[in-house]
């Protein structure tokens, strides 16, 4: 039986990739951010998960608004990164896993989730930055990744209650898979930030901390927010919280917080790193 | 509020498009099939709908397995047809609209349907053949079309009950739209057929007749099937019944329906071809 | 889901089959473009290579073995685009799969209306 052993929340902003490519981890600006990561890396290296289910949003590499899915998931054995147009380095291919992926896809469609199912897809910084953060030097080839992409770019977007339900359905699907696999779920992006408009630069530290607390102890309470509320409280791109909420939905057992590091600002965002154990 | 006038279910097989291009409507093979259409065309002509919401499936023109939506909906002012690879003639562009389309999209997301939203999409014979059947000579430019594609090509596919609920949500969205447009819904495809495997050519006439009978007042007898059961009873492509069920779902909250037309003819190409017209009380 | 039982003469194009069939279906999807069809006609073997078909898929293609293509993960919707290159319609393809001539296959279709 496959088992979800834990969940991780992390930022996925491209500036992180540039900082790592340029070796800036120890500079004053970056140090408080990168210092948060070794405990999570150590845990991953100890636990040795076979599969990472990674919730992210595509920022216009694979999906354009001509055909924009609400929820898309990969079922391929390999995924490629590529040029995103504004200078983040391309990273090596990501290993996929088609068997568990199809099992999840079947289960989700059966449960009334209308997935867009991708046998070939390019993955952007939303997915690659977190992988490189966890396994620096692009040493993530051994871990199999299942990308799950949530629309956070164009309204209407799925609401927190729907993304929590998606996470829960994925959690049930994984637990009904026969093979013995250790699975960790990543919720990436956020937290509060706004890139566009006169309100650009908006960050709400108190709201971010409250969200992290609720993610641990009472994720249902976050479903009281609409996406409009999230934009109001956390800025236009704070809807990326939906990825963190989906991750938490997939943890169906008893959840314990093992590590947390909140730091703001990183680029224009509040960055929330958290490691949750699922028993 | 916008008004739903009724629903039409029709075959969408490409051979029909080819037959119309070649003017074969009166030949012995085709005559019985085409003779069924004038009453439905007349009804459309009298009712003057502004918008047609068309449930169809894409057979590999716009969508490939690289990223295959369960449900996709268009929100564009224009839809182009294109070369499908095996020789059906391309037809002139289809007129779209964006206001009701986006209203439906918002309603669907709000009600937990995880659609793919398309601001540009090519539409294949699944959508163009029914339009040409209803308005021969490609005279469909006046009607605004909202294309809704349902995955019927690769498992897992949405369940019949999910397709029905999807249609129902679209019907509710139409009724909650502030405009006063007149809308028809079309469920296209089917009925029983199987193109692939040693079982190719399989048609199940009694089952097709059962579906056409039950869809009028007892659709719940059809939505309880699984897709596996549909394949078993109606052939590998018999799952196209899901588009009929979505159409019927859209009429769910319209009260009593009048069945104004029903006909069935086989074989048309490899299929049992059904035509059915269900009118609501909004129709004249 | 596609996994319950099996229906004789029917291959469910489910996830694992679609994974296996991906290169073949991708090649056939390309036939929506006239230039791709020409490129295929000019050098079939090179075209198989371009889409990295498996040996099983190449063999089925070379032999025009429709059942073999389905067993190799082919989807009838994309194979239909290949059939177009060969000038075959769905009755011809039906005959090829069932071991009938096209006329026998057409008669078989008609017969199912007589119930
Ligand atoms: Fe992002
Ligand atoms: Fe079809």
UniProtKB/TrEMBL annotation, chain A:
Pfam families, per database record: LigB
Q: Boundaries of each Extradiol ring-cleavage dioxygenase class III enzyme subunit B domain copy?
A: 8-269
Recorded hits in InterPro entries, A to Z, give:
Xdiol_dOase_suB (IPR004183)
NCBIfam families reported in the protein's UniProt record: PRK13364.1, PRK13365.1, PRK13366.1
Please state what the protein is called: Protocatechuate 3,4-dioxygenase
Automatic annotation (TrEMBL), chain B:
* Domain (Extradiol ring-cleavage dioxygenase class III enzyme subunit B): residue spans on this chain: 8-272
Gene3D superfamilies, sorted? LigB-like (3.40.830.10)
Source taxon at top rank: Bacteria
Q: Which residues form a coiled coil?
A: none
Instruction: Give the matching Pfam families.
Output: LigB (PF02900)
Report what the protein is called.
Answer: Protocatechuate 3,4-dioxygenase
Organism whose genome encodes this protein: Marinomonas ostreistagni
TrEMBL record, chain C:
Tell me which Gene3D superfamilies the record gives: Dioxygenase LigAB, LigA subunit (1.10.700.10)
One Pfam family here: LigA
Record domain Extradiol ring-cleavage dioxygenase LigAB LigA subunit: where: 24-109
Instruction: Note the NCBIfam families from the entry.
Output: PRK13378.1
Protein name (database record)? Protocatechuate 4,5-dioxygenase subunit alpha
* Organism (species): Marinomonas ostreistagni
């Amino acid at each position: 039986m496959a088992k979800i052993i834990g969940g991780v929340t992390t930022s996925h902003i491209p500036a992180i990739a540039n900082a790592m490519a340029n070796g800036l981890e120890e500079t004053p600006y970056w140090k408080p951010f990168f210092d948060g990561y070794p405990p999570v890396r150590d845990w991953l290296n100890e636990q040795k998960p076979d599969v990472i289910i990674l919730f992210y949003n595509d920022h216009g590499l694979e999906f354009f608004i001509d055909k924009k899915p609400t929820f898309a998931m990969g079922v391929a054995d390999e995924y490629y990164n590529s040029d995103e147009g504004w200078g983040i380095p391309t990273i090596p291919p990501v290993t996929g896993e088609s068997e568990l992926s199809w099992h999840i896809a079947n289960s989700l469609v059966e449960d009334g989730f209308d997935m867009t199912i991708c046998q070939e897809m390019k993955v952007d910084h939303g997915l690659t930055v977190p992988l490189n953060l966890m396994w620096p030097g692009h040493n993530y080839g051994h871990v199999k990744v299942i990308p799950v992409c949530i629309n956070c770019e164009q309204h209407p977007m799925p609401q927190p209650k729907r993304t929590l339900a998606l996470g829960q359905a994925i959690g049930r699907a994984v637990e009904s898979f026969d093979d013995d696999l250790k699975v960790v779920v990543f919720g990436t992006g956020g937290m509060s930030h706004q890139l566009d408009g006169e309100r650009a630069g908006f960050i709400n530290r108190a709201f971010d901390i409250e969200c992290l607390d609720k993610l641990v102890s009472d994720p249902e309470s976050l479903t009281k927010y609409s996406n409009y509320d999230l934009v109001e409280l956390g800025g236009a791109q704070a809807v990326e919280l939906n990825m963190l909420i989906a991750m938490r939905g997939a943890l169906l057992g008893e959840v314990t917080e093992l590590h947390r590091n909140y730091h703001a600002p990183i680029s224009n965002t509040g960055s929330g790193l958290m490691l949750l154990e699922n028993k | 509020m916008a008004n739903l006038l009724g629903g039409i279910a029709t075959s969408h097989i490409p051979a029909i498009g080819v037959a119309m291009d070649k003017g074969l409507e009166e030949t012995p093979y085709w005559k019985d099939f085409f003779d069924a259409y004038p009453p439905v065309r007349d009804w459309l002509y009298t009712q003057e709908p502004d918008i047609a919401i068309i449930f169809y499936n894409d057979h590999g023109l716009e969508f490939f397995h690289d990223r295959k939506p369960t449900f996709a909906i268009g929100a564009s002012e224009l839809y182009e047809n294109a070369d499908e690879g095996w020789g059906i003639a391309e037809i002139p562009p289809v007129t779209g609209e964006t206001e009701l389309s986006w209203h439906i999209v918002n309603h669907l997301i709000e009600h937990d349907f995880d659609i793919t939203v398309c601001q540009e999409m090519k539409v294949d014979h699944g959508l163009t053949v029914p339009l040409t059947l209803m308005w021969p000579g490609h005279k469909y430019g006046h009607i605004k079309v909202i294309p809704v594609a349902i995955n019927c090509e690769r498992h897992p596919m949405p369940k019949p009950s999910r397709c029905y609920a999807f249609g129902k949500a679209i019907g509710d969205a139409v009724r909650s739209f502030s405009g006063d447009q007149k809308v028809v819904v079309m469920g296209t495809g089917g009925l029983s057929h199987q193109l692939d495997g040693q079982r190719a050519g399989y048609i199940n006439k009694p089952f097709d007749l059962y579906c056409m009978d039950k869809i009028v007042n007892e659709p719940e007898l059809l939505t309880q099937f699984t897709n596996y059961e549909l394949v078993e009873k109606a052939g590998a492509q018999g799952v196209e019944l899901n588009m009929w069920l979505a159409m019927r779902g859209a009429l769910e909250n319209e009260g009593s329906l009048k069945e104004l037309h029903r006909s069935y003819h086989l074989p048309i190409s490899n299929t049992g071809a059904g035509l059915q017209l269900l009118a609501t009380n909004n129709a004249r | 889901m596609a996994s319950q039982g099996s229906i004789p003469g029917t291959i469910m194009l489910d996830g694992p089959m679609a994974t296996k069939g991906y290169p073949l279906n991708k090649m056939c999807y390309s036939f929506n473009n006239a230039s791709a069809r020409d490129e295929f006609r000019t050098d079939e073997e090179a075209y198989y290579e371009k889409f990295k078909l498996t040996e099983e898929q190449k063999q089925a293609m070379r032999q025009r073995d429709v059942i073999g293509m389905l067993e190799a993960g082919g989807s009838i919707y994309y194979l239909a685009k290949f059939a177009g290159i060969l000038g075959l319609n769905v009755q011809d393809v039906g005959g090829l799969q069932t071991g009938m001539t096209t006329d026998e296959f057409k008669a078989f279709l008609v017969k199912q209306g007589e119930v």
